[in-house]
Amino acid sequence: MAVERNLPWKTSRETKSIVSINRPELLLLLLLLSFPRSISELNQMQGYCAVASDSECSRSFTKILIKEGTVVNAHHKEVADVYIEDGVIVSVRPNIKVGDDVKILDATGKYVMPGGIDPHTHLEMEFMGTVTIDDFFTGQAAALAGGTTMHIDFVIPVNGSLSAGFESYKNKAKKAVMDYGFHMAIIKWDEEVAKEMELMVKENGINSFKFFMAYKGSLMVNDELLMQGLEKCKSLGALAMVHAENGDGVAEGQKRMIDLGITGPEGHALSRPPVLEGEATARAIHLASFVNTPLYVVHVMSINAMEEIAKARKAGQRVIGEPVVSGLVLDDSWLWDPDFTTAAKYVMSPPIRKAGHDKALQSALSTGILQLVGTDHCTFNSTQKAFGFDDFRKIPNGVNGIEERMHLIWDTMVVSGQISVTDYVRITSTECARIFNIYPRKGAILEGSDADIIILNPNASFKVTAASHHSKSDTNVYDGRTGKGKVEVTISGGRVVWEDGMLNVMPGSGKYIRMAPYGYLFDGIEKADAAYLASLRAPVQRTKAAA
Ligand code: URP
Ligand code: ZN
Ligand code: ZN
């Protein structure tokens, strides 16, 4: 059963419509009419403030000075001050002097880092007969409370139309409280789709397309479509992404489990073993090599897939591997829990693997075999998960993570000594910005970069609970986890949006970040094409034999 907690977006149906309204005065009026108490009272109670304008709630300073923290970028760290004005970083150096109109944040003994960028989320996505429970308001509010200041969500075409899909997601994102970008899924192929891909890249700021090699009968593409998609991506300078599982194999595995009478959540993991992920990863890599275009493998969950990526990278191929938090810190044992609600919350695809895969993925991340961390935040509450009570094939696939990623990766990778603080910034922020061609606007604390910044206290601790998280879901796959390192302040677009355990967000304040094609992964691709053509020694000029 879903448990409704006392958070503003859960209190009434009216509340939902309020947060989607974009006009500040109307929003404030509706908030006042809808709630029995004053906004400030609610804010105190619930650790949350949906401000209607910059003058509401705590005052939103446009000038901020972060004093004497250790400023960390992907390749360097130093003790310095950071001065922010109107949403942009103006100066990074020691001893910056400012006037009284500037909010001062003392970061002594703390790390000042670029806000996290989550490359993989599904907010308000229609999937498996339902819709993910976190929308662009609740999902992003959760993200900000956990130190993530930008995410890239996957647009799903509507009735096969990319433009309709884009419009639909533009609408969903009207209540955005932080910056976001879009990838686009390709689920069918014809001339119209090819034309629309071009439109998405040239007009709409999308520079990546995702192909699902699983979910047979809904999102899955076959090899012919994947090949056409890879060719088109290459011609546009757009990055091809794959969900790599052998969808035919999965369908067969599911049938096998049902025939064996295994209908519970454990059947999900058993029906789609690592070998099917490894096979599809290898196939996608080989096809991308044949086309000579870069490839991005999303949610790498197994040693099998990771080793295919390692092999390809060693051979010089441009393949990016994205593990997600669930694959890095969880194992599949929960799927065997006798309580259905507990087990079902861990159902995602590819599945969370047996213990051992998690540690191997951590090592791959620390040694550069895998490059950046996502979440695949795709939340369904326990009522939605219960759609599959009698049949694991009907359990909506997906887990949370957008709020927990920065803390869990800090604790698992930095506190354990597996990676440096600079590498932490690289894998949670900078590398994503580089791959999707928005660096150094995002992913850096440099003069001129957007003021998306976190202050992390390495001596404080965090605890994850479903009762205290900001997601709309009633469950959390990391429930009860504790660790070292706490994001105490989040600054998004130059505003302090998370401080003293309080969110101070403004629906509609998040900006759509357009991403240009031909990111760094495309540099020099044409030279490899030229070398390939030169190597053919064909067509051979032949003279006709005399009659
Ligand atoms: O289980 C998952 N991963 N759900 C989200 C859709 C996808 O495959 O990324
Ligand atoms: Zn996927
Ligand atoms: Zn996903």
UniProtKB/TrEMBL annotation:
Signal peptide residue numbers: 1-40
Molecular function in Gene Ontology: dihydropyrimidinase activity; metal ion binding
The keyword Membrane is assigned to this record: no
Record Pfam families: Amidohydro_1
Positions bearing N6-carboxylysine: K210
Required cofactor(s): Zn(2+)
Cellular component per GO, a single term: cytosol
PTM characteristics: Carbamylation allows a single lysine to coordinate two divalent metal cations.
Entry's Gene Ontology BP terms: pyrimidine nucleobase catabolic process
InterPro entries: Amidohydro-rel, Hydantoinase/dihydroPyrase, Metal-dep_hydrolase_composite, Metal_Hydrolase, Metallo-dep_Hydrolases_sf
Keyword Hydrolase (UniProt): yes
Keywords in alphabetical order: Hydrolase, Metal-binding, Signal, Zinc
Major enzyme class: hydrolase
Domain (Amidohydrolase-related): residue spans on this chain: 111-497
Gene3D superfamilies listed in its UniProt record: Metal-dependent hydrolases (3.20.20.140), Urease, subunit C, domain 1 (2.30.40.10)
Family assignment from sequence similarity: Belongs to the metallo-dependent hydrolases superfamily. Hydantoinase/dihydropyrimidinase family.
Subunit structure comment from the entry: Homotetramer.
Name of protein: dihydropyrimidinase
Gene transcribed to yield this protein: LOC105045489
